[in-house]
Design brief:
two-stranded antiparallel ribbon; 8 helices; single chain; Alpha/beta knot; 6-stranded parallel sheet; 186 residues; 8 strands
């Protein structure tokens, strides 16, 4: 397993009017990010929301594939979803990770916009693969992580650049590209 975990934040994130909101989970993000994270050897995939209703929904979906009919129907999905943990705040995620291992924790924020001081994928790949510490990669939903998150992290990862001016990848696709650049073999 990698010393890299991922957290998909549903709060605090922006909506299209640049207001801080709580977004809702999508079934695809739950399943696809878990499968991608497990494929790249991540130890944990955190879903972060203060909404108790959303936390209950995620638990219901995971339980269906873990102990319900889905567990027998699709054991691969069961394995992927086994790394999911839902917590109400980013602070809860950080606390859990610090209690799990004595390795220092470094937090990486990601987003679609360029930011001053962003670290390249090449540099971050070297750090993640060589340093003896754990890393937490943050991704936002909606229109991205709030500025308050970027102010609290150790590193900001450079954005993924496509061709042209359009830059609005689905979060699950962005994560797949990021994990391949950080952990993939090529």
């Amino acid at each position: 397993m990698s010393d890299l975990a991922v957290a998909l934040l549903h709060y605090p994130v922006y909506n299209k009017h640049h207001q801080v909101v709580t977004t809702a989970f999508t079934n695809l993000d739950i399943h696809d990010i878990a499968r991608t994270s497990r494929t790249y050897g991540l130890s944990r995939y955190y879903l972060v929301t203060p909404s108790e209703e959303q936390q209950a929904l995620v638990q219901r979906i995971v339980t269906h594939w873990d102990t319900g009919w889905g567990a027998d129907y699709n054991p691969d999905r069961r394995e992927a979803l086994s790394i999911i943990k839902t917590l109400p705040t980013l602070s809860d995620v950080i606390e859990e990770m610090r209690q799990t291992t004595p390795l220092p924790l470094k937090i990486i924020a990601s987003g679609a916009a360029s930011r001053t001081g962003a670290v390249s994928f090449r540099t971050m790949r070297q750090m993640v693969q060589q340093d003896k510490q754990q890393y937490l990669l943050l991704l936002g939903t909606g229109w991205g992580l709030s500025d308050e998150i970027f102010e609290k992290v150790d590193y900001i990862l450079e954005p993924i650049q496509g061709i042209g001016d359009y830059n609005h990848l689905p979060v699950r696709s962005a994560l797949a590209i990021m994990l391949d650049r950080l952990l993939g073999t090529y």
